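Exercise 7. Given the components listed, write out the predicted structure of the assembled complex. Treat all entries as one system.
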Amino acid sequence: MKQSELFPKTRKTAPKGAESINHQLLVRAGFMDQLMAGSWTLLPLGFRVVSKINQIIREEMNAIGGQEMLMPLLHPKSIWNETERWDKASEIMYKLKDPRGKEYVLSFTHEEIVMDLIRKNINSYQDLPLAVYHFSTKFRNEPRAKSGILRGREFMMKDLYSTHATEKDLYSYYEKVKQAYSKIFKRIGFDFRITEAAGGVFTDRNTHEFQVIAENGEDTIYFCQNCEWGSNKEIFKGKEGDICPSCKSGKVKISRGIEVGNIFPLGKWYAEKMGVNFTDKDGSLKPVWFGSYGIGSTRVMGAAVEVSNEDKGIIWFDAIKPFDVHLVELTGAKKTAEIYKTLIENKIDVLWDDRELGAGEKFADSDLIGIPIRLVVSEKTGSELEWKLRSSDKLKLMAIDEVINKLKAR
Ligand code: ATP
Ligand code: MG
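Answer.
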């Protein structure tokens, strides 16, 4: 893509009142735009990043048998009354009335909707287990929609739901999802910990959060320096330096974290409330076991920026970069159009800075946008290209063939 055509242009300064790094950098670099508190447009660059995040999530959900679908965002009051969440989750819901007085809520999660689907479409133990998921918008009346895209009142989530014939089956799938989530966050490039957390109002079973280690994170987490044990602040009663309650040898460390995912072994509560039953082998009618599993993909983009940046801009993790390379053309460069074409033919996704601007301005934009590899062509580079990683100051001249080989090897 030609940068002269990319919408919108970068900005020199951060918007007024932007406190968090992701807010400042993602807006300045043209990845997102704020409509009002907690409400964001993903601009073309931001949409690219979130699409990459979603694709990684999709691959790992499919690998554990998740079936992708899409559920509605406008829900009738009646379905939320079945679990009494219409009243009990009221604080977080955006409720509305149509002109005839019928009441609705905008989706803040989808457990009740999935349970209704299962109720209508599942009869026997042979129909179980089942795992379905979707990517869609969630609306939540967050009292403090600060922290940029980390806390939206409208945001994108992948939510997976699984139903099972037995508790054992639920927990063995729960472990699979835990591993799939670990793979996702590893693939993205995060340093993260899994922490045990309370289930909140709607389940007495403990849940697990996926917490990205981040100085500016909202959450406080404890974890063992030696083993996998981790806990959030709400349920750990000890302190930093204690001996790990799990392995009994490592020491407990404390850190700030950004919650990017949360998994819930919900049990039978929903099925019992909503009458979601199946016929078991012995002919008896039983409620299904239920789990739900969420990742906030727009929050993941914000978290990546919070943990990978420097003064001049973003440093994208390789797996979620908006483009493979930033081709920066300076005055006097020859044959840039040809180089661009060759890169495209080799399936390399290129942002070509073809604008008539000085080198200083172009490099500043390149650093701000943060594509991991910069290729400069100028009078000086002749028929070669100057290769530079966003995360390093080293420059290297290379012929186009060498550039392509190197890119393909990555
Ligand atoms: P938080 O504690 O941060 O308010 P939550 O525990 O209420 O989040 P969950 O219901 O567990 O959120 O949602 C699953 C995932 O959705 C979270 O792990 C997070 O990645 C994302 N998420 C939740 N709330 C928001 C929000 N307001 N803006 C962006 N992403 C969010
Ligand atoms: Mg949560």
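Discussion: The first helix runs from residue 21 to 28. DSSP finds eleven helices and 23 strands in the chain.
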